[in-house]
Design a protein that fits this description.
Elements: H1 11-27, H2 33-38, E1 57-63, E2 66-72, E3 79-83, H3 97-102, E4 106-110, H4 130-140, E5 146-151, H5 153-165, E6 169-175, H6 185-194, H7 204-208, H8 211-216, H9 218-231, H10 247-250, E7 257-262, H11 270-277, E8 283-288, H12 295-298, H13 300-314
Helix pairs in contact: 4-5
């Protein structure tokens, strides 16, 4: 099935592969060791200043079963909804909002139940369905057709929505989604091989930010941790999906879908994301080398440019 897709690799990945190949060749030719070692890859994790946010309207949307905090950056462009990770909230998108607004999109960031400024989950047995909340929020804001950019836990919600409502989606971007709820035996077996015991108990920044980023970007790591601490305002456990996740239900996702993987992601490495992407009819994939579970934060330019290029080819206003 993979040959049906326009798989894409980040040019930097290919370049770094060339460096590795050159270094390997140098081992067989002592005279060429110095020139090969001189071809070092660029430092891709230089600190990136957080750009200022454009003006926005914020509010609390009352929808069936809960109240959700949102930020609407306005304009008459194609609506673009940001779906945060389990470690985040509406606040996590400081690198994305300015770029997407500048590109002409009407950006909307919101916090799900139990996250920053949204209503918490009072009853774990009646915690709602995040994809239904998404539909109700869009209806509340008067939005018909839109795009979604999702990362980590936001990916499952986005795919759950797309299984039933692809007609409301221009295109979606799925970044670093481990899709641990997929009920396919071979995928479960692969997932268990990837996720070591105790990973979920590790500090969030260890699980979510790649080692290459943490090694050189101390301020960025600190800022990410501060936003993670602000994200959860109470109990957020218990929500359920509308659909079971199987290869058959993934095949119901008909809108153009971009999968984004971090090459050093502990939870959702490129191989796992590609396995899932092969079951989505209209999928493409890009890989950010050496990046962990938070491509949107670690490599914002790569993340933003990949999405804008993909959405530009697949988005029509209306």
């Amino acid at each position: 099935m993979a040959d049906k897709h326009a798989w894409k690799l980040d040019r930097r990945l290919l370049l770094m592969g060339g460096v590795a190949a050159g270094a390997a060749a140098a081992l067989t030719s002592p005279a060429s060791v110095t020139p090969a070692m001189a071809a070092l890859p660029e430092n891709q994790f230089k600190p990136v200043p957080m750009p200022p946010l454009p003006p926005f309207k914020e509010g609390i949307a009352e929808i069936p079963g809960t109240k959700l905090y949102y930020r609407d950056f306005g304009g008459d462009g194609v609506p673009l909804v940001l779906m945060h990770p389990a470690t985040g909230s509406a606040l996590m998108w400081g690198y994305q909002v300015p770029a997407f607004v500048k590109a002409g999109y009407r950006v909307i960031a919101y916090s799900r139940r139990g996250y920053y400024k949204s209503e918490t989950v009072a009853d774990k047995n009646n915690a709602g369905q995040p994809s239904t909340d998404l539909r109700n929020l869009m209806d509340k804001l008067g939005i018909g057709k839109f795009c979604i950019v999702a990362t980590a836990a936001g990916c499952t919600i986005t795919l759950d929505f797309a299984m039933d409502h692809s007609d409301r989606l221009h295109a979606i971007a799925i970044s670093s989604g481990s899709l641990g709820n997929l009920e396919e035996p071979e995928y479960k077996k692969a997932s268990e091989a990837v996720r070591t015991k105790g990973l979920d108990e590790m500090p969030p920044e260890f699980r979510e930010l790649g080692p290459a980023y943490r090694a050189v970007n101390f301020e960025g790591t600190k800022e990410w941790v501060e936003l993670e601490h602000k994200a959860i305002n109470g109990n957020r456990l218990g929500p359920t999906n509308v659909n079971k996740f199987t290869w058959a239900t993934l095949a119901r996702v008909k809108c153009p879908t971009l999968f984004i993987a971090g090459g050093s992601d502990l939870a959702a490495p490129p191989t796992m994301m590609r396995i899932a992407a092969e079951h989505v009819a209209n999928a493409e994939m890009v890989i950010s080398p050496n990046t962990g579970h938070s491509v949107y934060w670690e490599q914002p330019d790569f993340f933003n440019n990949s999405i804008l290029e993909f959405f530009g080819r697949n988005t029509k206003k209306g």
